[in-house]
Amino acid sequence: MQLIFEKSKNGRKAYSLPECDVPDVLLNSIDSKYLRTESPDLPEVSELDAVRHFTQISQRNHGVDSGFYPLGSCTMKYNPKVNELAARFDGFTKIHPYQQEKTVQGALKLMYDLGSMLSEIMAMERFTLQPAAGAHGELTGLMIMKAYHQNRDDQKRTKIIVPDSAHGTNPASATVAGFDVVEVKSNDKGLVDIEELKAAVGEDTAGFMLTNPNTLGLFDENILEISKIVHDAGGLMYYDGANANAILGISRPGDMGFDVVHLNLHKTFSTPHGGGGPGSGPVGVKKHLTEFLPVPVISKKEEEYYMDYERPNSIGKVKSFYGNFGVLVRAYAYILSMGPDGLKEVAENAVLNANYIANKLKDKYFLPIDTECMHECVFSADWQKEKNEVSALDIAKRLLDFGFHPPTIYFPLIVHEALMIEPTESESKETLDEFISVMRQIADEAENTPEMVKTAPHTTVISRLDETTAARKPILRYLPFY
Amino acid sequence: MKLLQELKYVESHEWVRVEENKAYVGITDYAQDQLGDIVYVEVPEVGTVVEAGDQFIVLESVKAASDVYAPVSGIVVEVNEELEDNPALINESAFDAWIVAIDMSMSNEIDSLLSAEEYEELCE
Q1: Which CATH class, in words, describes the domain spanning A346-467?
Q2: What is the DSSP pairing of strand A159-163 with strand A205-211?
């Protein structure tokens, strides 16, 4: 496919500007040092060229609007279009962050109310909406934990404990926040090993980061005991909200003993995700940590909403202005349109769908931890790999031929040849059945015609990429298509 | 499973070849097979002091980035520069592709490493 620059023809154009409604400015009235001397290198194409070009690009993409997208741990649920409608209201799009507070009361109310709703859903005292994405939320939460210990003049707490099933961002964020990371192993049920945790905590423990349900899609049933062990040692409990979709309206991190949580609005609360971002990673805290939240927090005095900067123990600002506001509007619209009962159904259906897939595929694919899962199930391609050298990567590539986005592969790291499937609540039984039948067909192909799987994809615009050479000898400069 | 009898092994899948007071360190054939095609090797600088158990090398494969742990304590005295341009050597011949050499500060640490049989048992 050509770049739009390669389609350019001198003098061709796709615009007709309306009559100018402001006075003309003569170029010679501007100091020449501010004037460019050559015209900008812009593509010159007709309107039809432009439409076709971008339509073709969009057709080479896969999004949740084009097909099933069971990318584990990413919660690629449908983004309802009513969210987009709300985000496009003039009152939200035509305001400026420097406007006086009294002229943006609606936007402030939205942030205030969204913070309150998230607090209720997660059993926290208060939220900041500033962090721009999940990992940014982690960093913010960890900075708050650090400020808490330092404010108590407890300087020994330098270690953050994470389980070996954690998302890679957990140890990375802890390192960026200036902590040392201690890893604890999972037990044979895929849950935190209590004895290992007991041995790991001490007076140097700043906190424990846990995703619950974890990356194996399992709810840690010992969570209350875990919280007690960490709290007794003087540490704080951090909840990674990556998998919060599984517990909406059913259980709450605050009730499990967590002190800090982050949520991914672009996962759990249906805002655009991945290349369609930006994301949003609000952080909620219990009462004993609210004084450390980033400034400004949105507060309410009588009937007026305002930005509160008078918070001497705050960790400061973590994002320019007030966070990715347009994303907050979408999440707010989603929560209001779902309501409490709707959000509970989200969790119930997400869990039901994952268990349905797990049970319909476990005779064809190895399910390392064969128990009821939450919102996602983690298979291993070990059987296929051992017998016919067909790997998780091959199976993922073969799925492309059927129009499905592959699941997450090779994560979590503690499962060999992992295939991590998260269907989300959005999908119908018919879609799940179609996916199941394709996965069963691929398992049969791996057995009978393994080359078919190993050389996939066959029907996509681009065939299998040589990822190894691409990484070892990357070509970093664009080569024109002729 | 491909193993060399004369080498020592660590449960985190490193091998060690001792030459006088120097310990040459690489990863096992089993480990390279699990990692898949290795595309980048990040090594410590010569002169880095390491303790047994320290994470001191990062291997990046098409699947994931993985840590390599120092099997023994000492000072890094050599790094295999060939791997910088050609990390595939580890996939092609894991037991020839040493990554670094450590001048050991406690050579008796070698005694606590695994033999080929012990390591093989562990992988099964």
Answers
A1: alpha beta
A2: parallel
Give residue A413's pLDDT: 85
B64 contacts A467? CB cut-off 8 A: no
Q: How many CB atoms lie within 10 A of CB A323?
A: 23
> Which ipTM was obtained for this model?
0.73
Distance CA A131, CA B106 (A): 48
Residue with tokens 């259980």: A251
CA atoms within 13 A on the CB side of A123: 15
Task: Please state, in angstroms and rounded to a whole number, the distance separating the CA atoms of residues A189 and A41.
Answer: 59
Average pLDDT over residues B53-73: 92
Please state, in angstroms and rounded to a whole number, the distance separating the CA atoms of residues B98 and A182. Answer: 28
Backbone angles phi, psi at A43, to 5 degrees: -70, 140
Residues of B within 8 A of A413 (CB-CB) are 64
- The dotted CATH code for A82-337 is 3.40.640.10
Q: Do A472 and B87 touch (CB under 8 A)?
A: yes
Query: Would the CB atoms of A468 and B34 count as touching at under 8 Å?
Result: no
- Residue A449 Cα to chain centre, angstroms: 37
| A416–B contact, CB cutoff 8 A | yes
* Per-residue pLDDT, B1: 81
Which pLDDT score is estimated for B63? 81
**Per-residue pLDDT at B56:** 94
Letter string b/e over residues A110-143, b meaning 16 or more CB atoms within 10 A of that residue's CB: bbbbbbebbbebbbbebbbbbbbbbbbbbbbbbb
Which regions in chain A score pLDDT beneath 70? 275-277, 481-482
C-alpha distance from A473 to closest chain B C-alpha (Å): 9
Percent of chain B with pLDDT over 70: 100
User: Which strands make up the sheet holding B22-27, listed edge to edge?
Assistant: B8-9, B14-19, B22-27, B100-104, B74-79, B49-50
Instruction: Identify the architecture of domain B8-107 in CATH.
Output: Beta Barrel (2.40)
| Chain B CB within 8 Å of residue A467 CB | yes
Distance from the Cα of residue B51 to its chain's centroid: 14
Q: Write down the domain spans for chain B.
A: 8-107
Cβ contact A410–B40 (<8 Å): no
- Indicate the domain borders of chain A: 4-58, 82-337, 346-467
According to the model, what pLDDT value does residue A322 have? 92
* Cβ distance of A410 and B64 shorter than 8 Å: yes
Rg (C-alpha) for chain A, rounded Å, is 25
- Predicted confidence at residue A476, as pLDDT, reads 87
pLDDT at A482: 53
* Averaged pLDDT, B58-81: 93
